[in-house]
Amino acid sequence: MIKIRSASEQDIPALVNLSWALNAAFDCPVAPEETALARNWGQIDALVAEADGAIVGFMAGTENFLLHMGRSIYTLHSLFVAPAYRQQGITRRLFEALCDDLRRRNVFKITVQVGKENDNARAIYEALGAVESPHAQWHTTMEYYL
Questions:
Q1: Can you tell me the distance from the alpha carbon of 105 to that of 90, in angstroms, rounded to the nearest whole number?
Q2: Which segments within the chain are labelled E, that is strand?
């Protein structure tokens, strides 16, 4: 059974490991160190998917208050589900839990930047209800209004 919950500091080692796997998929040789996550934990807004006591996926981003709009938006920075746990609805469950939480916080929009050629990610976000922003220039920015 998959459990979706807020990430805690005890999840840092698993989040580092999953971040390495995420970045490796894009030939990015960098990932956070445990000390960096621990030092900045107060800034981390993440949900995790847990199966049999192991973290098998996560979704993380930041909330930003826009002065000129008087409202907050949420920028989704990271999403990863371990390959063995894909195609089980975990991404949808993470996203739905995120939306529920952000609605309680009165956030009105989620944005996520997706590489123009990352068709898999685009398809996932579109299936979740996101639409391409008319403001896209170098990246496709997907938006999901809450």
A1: 23
A2: 2-6, 45-51, 54-66, 71-81, 107-114, 131-132, 140-145
How many CA atoms, within 13 angstroms, populate the side-chain half-sphere of residue 47? 22
Q: What is the residue range of 12's domain?
A: 2-145
Query: Domain holding 42: CATH number?
Result: 3.40.630.30
Regarding beta strands 131-132 and 140-145, do their DSSP bridges make them parallel or antiparallel, or are they unpaired? antiparallel
Amino acid at the residue 34: E
- Quote the tokens at residue 94: 């993470």
Number of domains in the chain: 1
Task: Give 74's pLDDT tier (boundaries 50, 70, 90).
Answer: very high
- pTM for the whole structure: 0.86
